[in-house]
Design brief:
Layout lengths: L6 E8 L4 H18 L8 E2 L5 E2 L7 E6 L1 H13 L4 E5 L8 H9 L8 E9 H7 L4 E2 L2
Parallel strand pairs: 1-4
Antiparallel strand pairs: 1-6, 2-3, 4-7, 5-6
Helix pairs in contact: 2-4
Pfam family, one: DUF2000
Protein name: DUF2000 domain-containing protein
InterPro entries: DUF2000, Pep_tRNA_hydro_II_dom_sf
Length: about 140
């Protein structure tokens, strides 16, 4: 019987990103969720030879896409619901380290961020409402 989670981890990407950008943005966005919401992380893995591997998310990460307007609306809804979230702005493609990434986000007000990706975690129904208008990534 499949496990049904009461929570959802979702990434919403802007639909005009290049394939390499989609992968990069997704990796960066989900890296923040485990630090803020440690309950999303499962137990460490081991193989049959007892080789240890890092723990990963305990549930699937669903990836969606949408227009710039869809991302802006989803960001606003995630904020209004106080859900754990991560953002990736277009400015971050021009930086090369965490310090400059944080400075680039810090330089812009929340209503003017040029979002290319948003990750959100929370109760399934709340995340579904945040993602209204988005579609599953093909």
């Amino acid at each position: 019987m499949p496990v049904r989670f009461g929570t959802k981890i979702a990434v919403l990407l802007r639909d005009d990103l290049e394939p390499w950008q989609r992968l990069n943005v997704t990796a960066f966005l989900v890296s923040g969720l485990g630090t803020a919401s440690p309950e999303v992380i499962g137990e460490p893995y081991t193989d049959a030879d007892d080789t240890a591997y890092l723990p990963m998310f305990r549930q699937p990460v669903l990836v969606f896409e949408g227009t710039k307007e869809t991302l802006t609306a989803a960001h606003r809804r995630a904020l209004s619901r106080s859900l754990p979230r991560a953002v990736f702005t277009s400015d971050l493609f021009g930086t090369g380290n965490d310090r400059d990434n944080r400075a680039a986000v810090r330089a812009v007000g929340k209503d003017r961020l040029d979002l290319v990706g948003v990750a959100v975690y929370g109760p399934r129904n709340a995340v579904d409402k945040v993602l209204k208008g988005a579609r599953m990534h093909p």
